[in-house]
UniProtKB/TrEMBL annotation:
Record flagged with keyword Transcription regulation: no
UniProt xrefs under Gene3D superfamilies: P-loop containing nucleotide triphosphate hydrolases
Domain Helicase HerA central: start-end pairs: 10-72
Domain of life: Bacteria
Coiled coil (UniProt feature): none
Keywords on record: ATP-binding, Nucleotide-binding
The protein's name in its UniProt record: ATP-binding protein
InterPro entries in the cross-refs: ATPase_Atu1862_pred, HerA-like, HerA_central, P-loop_NTPase
Gene Ontology terms for molecular function: ATP binding
Annotated Pfam families: DUF87
Amino acid sequence: MSVQIDMGVDGAGQPIEMDLEELLATRLLVQGNSGSGKSHLLRRLLEGSAGTVQQIVIDPEGDFVTLSDAFGHVVVEGADYSLVEIARLAQRIREHRASVVLSLEGLEMEEQMRCAAAFLGALFDAPRDHWYPALVVVDEAQVFAPAAAGEVSDEARRTCLGAMTNLMCRGRKRGLAGVIATQRLAKLAKNVAAEASNFLMGRTFLDIDMARAADLLGMERRQAEGIRDLARGHFLALGPAISRRPVAVKIGAVKTSARTSSPKLMPLPQPGGGDLQSLLFAPIEASPPPPPPPPREAVPAADLMRSIAAPAPSATAPQVPHIGDEEKEDIVAEALREIVADPASAFQQPAVLFQDFATRCRMRRLGNPGLDIAAFRRRLGMAKAGIFREDEEGWADALAIAGTLPEDMLGTFLFIARAARHGAECPSDDAIAEIYGTRSPGRVRRLLQFIEDQGHIVVRTDLSGRRSIGLPTLGWTTASAEPKPEPADLFTRSR
């Protein structure tokens, strides 16, 4: 399902949109000097995709914690927890698909790197069942993936750089889409920056940064001078999720704001009497030191984990009409029907399709379809076989048999059972492979052999090579299917 995020307008006033699904597959790099509008751009992206995909923000300055008020993000103060607790929180975040902001404000640079490394490492090492799609936004990425050694220890730098490399290089298959922002490309490790396929380049002045930005955008070196002239909030964009050719973008407005902002000019105070010298050097009266600020109350890790696992509060629940069980089942069935009708879904991971399924249900005002990932896999297998409802008549026995097979074989067995029940032709290896989610003919043969060894099917091939499959327990049999013609050899084709 395609979701477009409105990022702003081009020079002609035409809207520029970012394809969220493409972004999840191809990652994003944002570059610009301090004050160029990087954080504003990231905030526009986060606000535009909130509620559609899980968001995880690594925030070294605490600027993005304001997302919690408007969009319900959970704020994790990194300074309040140990590295072990940070890793456990990250595991819960992946499991429950909570959108969070990891605020590292109050930590020294080395401690920020250790905390981010533990957090990213736990996200990356999550079990396969928790590989849900998520945007992982890392602001000031040059801090966590430095190109050269700095003032921090080598051990902290290597650990954090390894976590960032895993995010950008290997995170895609685990559902993690890296979105990194940096002030200077020259300070960012090249193997981290090189994995992004989408770029938004803002104002920069140093020749080495302009040259690298021009190379990434496919511009000639003489055109790189234009990067220096970009106004604040203006970026040059390129990538499969945005545009196939470089395009200028003026980032649109945002709903939330950072806790800090750029300094503004204010009139100087006028002395009430006497000159400034007498005011500054007046005798200083001894006074007691001001009381220390009250200590910040840290949320215990166990309480924060429970809040992550709990469902998000629904302030508008009374306005949502009640959906009965029958209507809920209709919505679930229709969402599954749309998913299996999409040819691209055949080879996608169930966790990715689960995110798509949840979004389709929410668009139909069904916030909780009542399916976890295990139940969704079962319903997805049924849907691939053309069974979209739990209560469809005549399938109870077949479903009971399918329940004894491994989870990934359920859809294949039911697909064969549907053909056998109606006396249709025996499905081809290609059709079975698409249902199973493979392109390997050998895997299809091993799959059929395994199901036959369990006694659930009997595969027959007559002398002419026509195949049929029977289900002895149910008494159903497919019609014989003509063998696929053998491809002509090279000699025959040349003739």
